[in-house]
Amino acid sequence: MFDNLTDKLAGTFKKLRGQGKLTDRNIEDTLKEVRKHLLEADVNYRVAKDFLEAVKKKALGQEVMKSLSPGQQFIKIFYKELTDLMGAEISDLNLKVAPPAVIMMTGLQGSGKTTTAAKIALMLKTEKKRSPFLVPADVYRPAAIDQLKVLGDRIGVQVFDSIPTMNPVDIAREAVAQAKTRGLDTVLIDTAGRLHIDEELMDELKNIKAAVSPSEILFVADAMTGQDAVTVAETFNHAIDVTGVVLTKMDGDARGGAALSIKSVTGKPIKLVGVGEKLEAIEAFYPERMASRILEMGDMLTLIERAEKAVDEEKAAEMEKRLRKNDFTMEDFREALYQLKKMGPLEEVLGLIPGIGAQVRRIKDMTPAEKELKKIEAIINSMTAKERRNYNLLNGSRRRRIAAGSGTQVQDVNRVVKQYQQMKKMLKTMNTRGFSFPGMK
Ligand SMILES: Nc1nc2c(ncn2[C@@H]2O[C@H](COP(=O)(O)OP(=O)(O)OP(=O)(O)O)[C@@H](O)[C@H]2O)c(=O)[nH]1
Ligand SMILES: [Mg+2]
Q: What is the pairing mode between strands 282-284 and 270-274?
């Protein structure tokens, strides 16, 4: 999802590394590149422009934070604005009305209305303990009614028995009446798609809306169609005042344009995203998570925030210097563990670092509790200064001596050496990915 955009942004942000601070000049350069990336990702021109202006204003007004590098500072601002652009908050489906709540699915042909109707039904049934009623109101395409019946059967959800000669408005009205008698609390109306927007379709949707007063009118958009989806959403919204957007096919190689522009253009939140053909493949839309996925930073910002509070800047700077020289020693390792510990449970902290979370999960021994930390310290203290600077000196007999000296086992010493190596590797990974150790510049 949005891989291309993610890579390009990372490339641009990386250039901020090695810069002393954010200046008019490097902010301008960065924004120019970002603008190109956004337009290439098919983000609406005006949306991109407004967005970049907001980022610029914040970046220029940013007070200098000692513990953050320019790249980190910029990413922090960028991330916040990106989240706001997509809606800032999670928008749940509004079903808090006298039952049955009615959800109307709208959108162009092939956008995923029918599939999404079934997905939502399944989600409401399993997660919200609701009893959905699927209603095929597409009487134009011969197989449309059957398509929904098959899906309903598969997920054990009742389907209204639409007859192709019925009028879609009557179908909707009758389905709602039937839902009441059947004791079903959520009616999902699957409307017909069109290749293009036309008056007739809009009138039909308006009439259905007037007949059954849906609490949700969802515009289903194919994320792969980028800005086109946004234009169409605008038209639908004008005509029938939609309540939210579902972006489908986010599992494909959508470029991001639709996801990034649609909220800003229509003023309507993205509520759900479709991430596959399977009926389970639907997720709530979290603007924050999406922004962090786009920037591929795990929860880098949480980490940045904690780092601001906890890291001893002098020590961090010292460590950074050594790291630069690829000279991260056992002593630095010990120090790093203490610094990280101040930010919270080590595993959790490391898990927040992009590209490292997964690595950490693989390393089972990576959670030294207080006790474990003491042990590590004892082991490192039992090494000679030379060994701490060059762990290659730690041969078998030295390791046995160190174990004896620190009251531990050889396996413990081996493990510490291994953890040290892993930490060193991780820091290197962070470096090459354009991130530095919290508090380092
Ligand atoms: N990969 C992927 N495919 C999807 C997703 N949602 C829908 N599809 C596929 O898109 C195609 C069209 O889906 P439908 O649900 O039939 O679309 P529709 O809007 O009801 O189409 P019409 O009724 O013809 O207007 C189907 O092949 C679906 O399997 C999704 O989130 N991911
Ligand atoms: Mg359909």
A: antiparallel
